[in-house]
Amino acid sequence: MADNHADHQHIGIPGYLAVFAILIVGTWITYVVAFWDLDAIFPGANTLLALAIAFTKMTVVMLYFMHVRWSKELIWLSAVASFFWLIIMFAFTMQDYFTRVSGVFSS
Amino acid sequence: MSTHADAHDHHHHEPGLQHQFENMGQQEESVSIGMWMFLVQEIMFFGGLFTAYMVFRWRYPMAFAEGSNHLDAFWGGLNTIVLIVSSLTMALTVYYAQKGMRNMQVIMIALTMLFGTVFLGVKAIEYTDKYNNGLIPVAGWNKKSTGAEVAEKAQAFAFPWEIRTEAADAGHGEKKPYINPRGDFQWNYGHKLVEQAEKGGYLTADEKIHYYSNGVFDPFKFQEKVRLFYFIYFVMTGLHALHMVVGLLLMAWLLWKAWLGTFSALYYSPVEMSGLYWHFVDIVWIFLFPLLYLLGRHFIH
């Protein structure tokens, strides 16, 4: 039992502080770039960048704060599966709205 | 379970081992699978709201941008930082629980609770601002005002952020005195982004149908679309705040257990599971902040 717990120290305090620093910097970047007009590059670029940063922050939180990196495969599976189902919900809903045009069926 | 513990004494003398598990390893695995299943359903739960957000933002992007620009990104950003700090103290709580350091656990849980409370306090300030400006989407839930006290209010003390908001509004749209006898939702901040979008040629035909009546901009129709944004804002942040309250109750219980010195290197599952919940709530906010507060900022030049 005891040796089973030895590896539970994870990344230690410097590691946690590093993750914390990434999250703070990520928040700061999110805030700053929100005021740049990236839609000049392509429409939705602002949202895409904001979501990309949010996904990075989420990944770091899940891997290190939530210890998924050291967890069993079943935990990995549940975490990934939840996003898989989320994508199905988003994709199946939005394929309807994305393909509608203004007119009889849109109002 | 203590009665059963004696029967299983021959096992390992594990302090937190429940009788239905073979050993601590099996118990830990079962507990974390259970917690993760709960979190998966929470993700789907919030996912439904994110779907609603996607659908309506896709249909009324300018109304959403206009509504979002009136939220205070400073308070939203501050709350993001506050939650990240609380996530750090939560992670450290688990760390110290694993080391069996009681005092540091107690300090870290107390700090987590402090930051959680600060978060809810900031939320209360924001909600009060919405209440005072007629931005709660339910009719009758806003501050009722006949306009008689408006002149009086102009003389009253103002906090620095209130002055800043009004200065921002001056550039954003025409600031009218707050007159709302029945406490309805009202939108007094103009439609500059719609005009800008029409000039720029990126106002969609669908939006034009929903903001215009007979080819003329219809403030009431537009207000109803902004109202949708505020519905989504209040339901999403409200549900998130509710999760924070539950998290705080969980922390209070954890603080009590940690105070009693329950957790050690051999038994710390409750700390780790509460941590998972807390980090999940933090992750939801990581998405809510850019999606609700920052979505239309780049339209202002």
Walk me through the structure.
The complex is a heterodimer of chains A (107) and B (301). Chain A is built from 4 helices and no strands. Helix content of chain A is 69%, strand content 0%. Chain A is flat. With 107 residues, chain A is mostly helical. Chain B has 301 residues and is an all-alpha fold. A two-stranded antiparallel ribbon of chain B has the order 1-2. In chain B, α2 (24-59) runs antiparallel to α10 (219-259), α2 (24-59) packs parallel to α11 and α10 (219-259) packs antiparallel against α11. The longest helix of chain B has 41 residues, at 219-259. The N and C termini of chain B lie far apart (65 Å). At the A-B interface, α2, α3 and α4 of A face α2, α4, α9 and α11 of B.
How many E strands of chain B?
Answer: 2
What sequence of helices (H) and strands (E) makes up the elements of chain B? HHHHHHHHHEEHH
What is the percent of helical residues of chain B? Answer: 55-70%
- The largest beta-sheet of chain B arranges its strands as 1-2
Spans of chain B of 5+ residues with little confidence (pLDDT < 50)? 5-11
Coarse shape of chain B: elongated
The count of helical stretches of chain B stands at: 11
What is the mean predicted local confidence, pLDDT of chain A? 86
> What composes the largest sheet of chain B?
2 strands, antiparallel
Q: How can the largest sheet of chain A be summarized?
A: none
Bin the strand percentage of chain B.
under 5%
Question: How much helix is in the residues of chain A?
Answer: 55-70%
Q: If helices are DSSP runs of H or I spanning 4 or more residues, what is the number of helices of chain A?
A: 4
Name the quaternary structure: heterodimer
How much of the sequence of chain A is in beta strands?
Answer: under 5%
The stretches of 5 or more residues of chain A where confidence is low (pLDDT under 50) are: 1-6
Number of strands of chain A: 0
Structural class of chain A: mainly alpha
End-to-end separation of chain A: 64 Å
Shape descriptor of chain A reads flat
